[in-house]
Amino acid sequence: MTDYLYDAARRLIAFDTVSAHSDIAAIEYLAAELRARKFSTAIQPAELGGVAQANLVAWAGPARGDGLIISGHVDTVPFEGQPGWTRGALALEVAGDRIYGRGTTDMKGFIAQCLEAMREFDLGRLARPLVFVFTASEEVGCLGAEKVGPALRRILGETPVPRMAWIGEPTSWAVSHAHKSIVLFDIAVRGRGGHSGAPAAGVNAIAVMGRVIAAIGAIQEERRANPRPEFRAIFPDAPYDVLNFGTIAGGIALNMIAEECVLRISYRSLPDADPLELYREAARRVRALDLHDFASRTAEAVIELRPPMVVPPLNSPRATPLERALFEATGANDSGGVLFGTDGGWFAQSGIVSLICGPGEMDQAHQPNECIRRDYFERGPGIVRRVIETMCCRA
Ligand SMILES: [Zn+2]
Prior knowledge:
By secondary structure, this protein is an alpha+beta fold. The chain has 9 helices and 17 strands. It is elongated. The structure holds zinc ion. Zinc ion binds next to loops.
């Protein structure tokens, strides 16, 4: 195994690409590395979540159909303030049979493997296009992929947009063709403030939010009670829509009537469902609520469901050439679902069929002292080369 693989991972991890910060320096590094290997490159700048970000598209091979996209996101989840770190998050560290650093698993390790796979690869062997797409802001709603998916036709010009994408998210080299959609939204309750000694003069927003939680929680109970048997195989833990009350904030003092309360909710719907169906159902239930608090029957609270943010689901067909190529290269022999969302949901909206398969381990993603097994890491470049040979080099 070469020093280059480790060096590439070390350099990628050293860029602080937490989604709230710019990824441009990391994208420019990747572009320079791939240009040095004779790839054509295009950097797509985008203002995402108020931050200057960029996606990278790098391509090679003849302008024919049936090419392959290999994709990964460059951003990471935060590490500052996360309890449990005993190592430097931005300094790759090899210890025992593991490599540590934020992004080793999710998912700079895979991107380093792509670079290593191309280090001595003769692009003249490509019979079909090979396209790397490295994205920004995946961890905050796949915002980079939402931008780059529809732009690929323009960026690639003469080269037809490949209909298949391989995304190297952490699966311990298992193959996945499906994930649920993800929807995030806030609910704000506005009551009326005042002294806690005279509750009837106000409306307590926290109290009314309690009704909201019970009403939306009831949706979760109903879904859990009615699992969908056809999804048992790919989502064995939850073959139904799952919902999470993420954060809640309301009130400012013990002796004041809470005037405002904001609840942040996320949910994940089965991949064959309209992602916004549950949002609309939540809105219906909230509209039917008693808007009084428990202290008086006079004034009512006002409830606002804020606009949702959606990451589309992934529900790729089985038995595709890419599935066969990944099985052959990794030794996997079945495909299932993953519990996280990916850029593949947005790629699917542009007609690109995505499969998820990567070296990291799901239980390491987003953890303190994030790490990757060295054997999974070092196997990667060979797997990447083999998939490229199967998909792009055979006549
Ligand atoms: Zn990821």
